[in-house]
Design goal:
This protein is mainly α and 162 residues long. Helix content is 79%, strand content 0%. α1 (2-40) packs antiparallel against α2, α1 packs antiparallel against α4 and α3 (84-119) runs antiparallel to α4 (131-161).
Length: 162
């Protein structure tokens, strides 16, 4: 179990570094575009497209690390008032539903990316292919599933110990 946690942590941190790099590039590109507009009266061609694609990178690659830190929004007002055993049952259910959701998202993302790849879909200005970013979304769902699996195992172990 510890090996799985270490691997998941390493993977999520690596993906988070990619998200951070995407955010820095997005910021630099936005600043450069604003400067180009103000000084040269001409925007950087395709800057809006590139920022949009980088937004996908930032959000997708940060998912697993955010799950690891339990940084996603949770409504716990009701659950925190329940007995610990019931809270663990809710944790198991939420983890299972999350695994199913992100596994489906990964699967459908891979399928959709393949469709986009075969169709040759590209952005309007820079003609950047869409499919690598959709594949990236699918890949980024895998560490989230892994993190949710770890949480599920922790809940099950805690319930079994009681």
């Amino acid at each position: 179990m510890e090996q799985l946690k270490k691997f998941s942590s390493w993977l999520n941190q690596g993906f988070n570094w990619v998200a951070g790099a995407g955010l820095v590039i997005m910021l630099a590109l936005t600043v450069a575009d604003v400067i180009a507009i103000k000084i040269f009266s001409s925007p950087i061609p395709g800057a809006i497209e590139l920022v949009s694609f980088l937004g996908v990178v930032v959000v997708a690659f940060a998912l697993g690390y955010t799950q690891q830190l339990k940084g996603h929004i949770q409504v716990e007002f009701f659950v925190t008032r329940l007995p610990e055993k019931i809270r663990d049952i809710f944790g198991i259910l939420v983890s299972l539903i999350g695994i199913i959701l992100f596994a489906l998202l990964a699967w459908r993302s891979f399928e959709y990316a393949r469709v986009l790849q075969l169709a040759g879909e590209v952005s309007m200005t820079q003609r950047i292919p869409f499919y690598p970013f959709v594949y990236a979304i699918g890949v980024c769902c895998i560490p989230v599933c892994l993190q949710l699996l770890i949480e599920l195992i922790v809940y099950v172990k805690r319930m079994a110990a009681k």
